[in-house]
Amino acid sequence: GRGVLPCAMAALGAYRCIECNGEATELYRDYQRGVLRISICKSCQKPVDKYIEYDPVIILINAVLCKAQAYRHILFNTKINIHGKLCIFCLLCEAYIRWLQLQDSSQNTDPDDLIRYAKEWDFYRMFGIASLEQTSFFFGIFITLWWMTPEMLKRKSDFILLLKALLLSTYGKLLLIPAVIWEHDYTPLCLAFIKVFVLISNSQAIRVTLNLNRILPWFAIFFGLIFENGVVCLFQKMGWDV
To answer: Where does the sequence pass through the membrane (predicted)?
Structure first.
């Protein structure tokens, strides 16, 4: 309940209404002695951010369900600076999955050899490839959005906010590790579902950040995937296992 309120007020500047995306000067007003009143949006006449009273677990569940209100709460009305660390950890997860697949294809079951194999540079190579692929994916998204809606990305802060939103929306890649730990016959299908879930999260992040319709974010993601697949083809022509 009220334990999350100070965190929501940590960021200075304008906030956003999670319902209509309108700007607000405050999320709640403190009348002292534990009396708090959530601010009402002047545009839609609804609470600016009902999530400031919710438990973080409920907010996370709503984010997993890709609700726009939860995304606006996280992106605009809270001060979260974990996007960089989250990105690195997600890339490590993806690199680990690729490293395991490369290891399985070696058909060498000598334990000593596997230990030496783990010390080689294959894992770091996979991390580098995953990083370049994600960078090209984001690059394709930025180029498409800048071309289609240049008025939405006029300032440097707009690019930074969109990048932060995209990085945070890749949290679905954390599910790669459980999918491998609980390995079964449907693991490839699970990995495909995780990929789709991440793309849906990316689309919602773009839509909420730039206040767009549902079509344009998917159009940008489509071109992002084209750029990413172009990098994959380049690596394959170089003879690298990706």
So the answer is: 126-147, 159-182, 215-235
Q: Are residues 118 and 52 in the same domain?
A: no
Amino acid present at 116 = R
Q: What is the pLDDT of residues 150-168, one digit of tens each?
A: 888 888 888 999 999 999 9
Q: Is 193 exposed, middle or buried (0-12, 13-18, 19+ CB in 10 A)?
A: middle
Instruction: Check whether residue 33 and residue 119 sit in a common domain.
Output: no
Q: Parallel, antiparallel, or unpaired: how do β-strands 28-30 and 36-38 relate?
A: antiparallel
pTM: 0.82
Contact status, residue 173 vs residue 94, Cβ threshold 8 Å: yes
Q: Are residues 20 and 113 in the same domain?
A: no
Q: Could you give the angle at the alpha carbon of 89 between the alpha carbons of 130 and 122, nearest 5°?
A: 45
Q: Which of 118, 164, 115, 112 is nearest to 142 (CA)?
A: 164
